[in-house]
Amino acid sequence: MRLISYSVQVFVTLLALMFSGMAEAGGRDCERVKLLAELNAEMSTAALANYDASSSTMQRIELQLQGISLQGLERFLTRLNMASYYSSVEHLFAHASAYAQSGKVTARSDVEASVRNIDLMISKICAGQLSGGAGPDGRYEGDAEGDGGFWENQNDWVRATGFTAGAGGVLLFLAGLLTVCRYAIGLIQHKKMCSVPAVLIGNELEFPGKLSRAGLHAVRFEPMNEAVADQLTELMSSPGFIHFDLRINDIDRPVFVDGYHKFYAPLYFFTKLSRKELSALLSLSERSIRNAPYIGHKSTRKKWRAQIRARNRLIKQAKPVN
Question: Which of 49, 109, 41 is nearest to 288 (CA)?
Answer without folding.
Answer: 49
